[in-house]
Amino acid sequence: MTRAPVPPKANGSPGPMVSVVLPMRNESRGLDGLFARLVPALRALAMPYEIVTVDDGSTDDTLARLKSFRDEVAHLKVVSLSRNFGKEIAVTAGLARTTGDVVVVMDSDLQHPPESIASLVAPWRDEDFDLVYARRKNLDRGGFLRNAFSKGFYAAFDFMSEIRVDRETGDFTAIDRKVVDAFLAMPERNRFNRGLFAWAGFRTTTVDVVMEERQVGTSQWGFLKLMRLAANAITSFGTLPLKIWAIIGSVVSASALIYGAYVSAKTLLFGADVPGYPSLMVAIMFFSGVQLIGLGIIGEYLGHVFSEVKRRPLYFVREAIGFDVPPATTSHTPGITVEDTCSDGL
Ligand code: UDP
Ligand code: MG
What we know:
Largest sheet: 8 strands, mixed
Strand order of the largest sheet: 7-5-6-4-1-2-3-8
CATH topology of the largest domain: Spore Coat Polysaccharide Biosynthesis Protein SpsA, Chain A
Radius of gyration: 25 Å
Number of domains: 2
Number of strands: 8
Distance between the termini: 56 Å
Strand content: 5-15%
Bound molecules: uridine-5'-diphosphate, magnesium ion
Helix content: 40-55%
Order of helices and strands: EHEHEHEHEHEHHEHHHEH
Number of helices: 11
């Protein structure tokens, strides 16, 4: 089945149109290489296109260079956020400003080869898929530790969450407009984009892509940042970590009862013996640890509730360049406007 023809756009260009979203933090040095490959790749699609770049609080001259590239690169738009909000939010800010019928999200460091955009868009156009993921053919994520961490995370996520996220897919995706709208309608502040897309559903497929090495600079995901994203992802999509403590508690209590009965019987039959101090200490320390982990996990969920009830906008836009209609300066959160959130009493 092929996609029903999209009606021509109001601006007279033939539909359908493709938008590309590029989140960027300190990517200035790679911009020449990026546009040198992206623009021919988009032209080869023979579809109208727009490039929406999001400057996510860069501290180098990414923003200034993006602005100057607007003279050379047609249909280049720039959204500059008020500070660094992180990649997930930067992608959200970019998606909110796209107008294409299909939106391609990709990294700006050329790890996602622009030449593969055509193969991502093809299943959308020809087979009516709504969400097309690039699947890493080369799974190595740079180093033994990072691979082990990634495997551990996906195993934990699979076990504990209500949705499935494929470890072999990443953020390089082609997304139909209706899925973009569904994604933007989800108001949560703690965002794990791939989880939100998976939760939304729709007709999904994958395309094999050979990912490349970062061309310049280094990855901006330190171990701690990755840990945060992983904890956030797991606690955003399931409550098993919360509930598991009831099971652990029951098992521990049952074992304690059995052990208590055994010790009582032993004391009655053979009298009390004093030794056992080390095992007592180990037991105390172990179970204090278990209780603190349990508390920490409750804290993680409470943190989510805290940030959700504040209902702050997801991000602020400092500058938006190249958009026909000036975009809103805050994130789209259904039902809330900036005025609503600023009470006179404050
Ligand atoms: N990025 C971003 N905001 C951040 C960190 C990263 O927009 O706070 C962008 C970055 O510029 C790049 C993409 O997200 O285009 C992927 O980042 P990176 O290459 O550092 O991560 P990795 O490829 O190692 O997962
Ligand atoms: Mg990268």
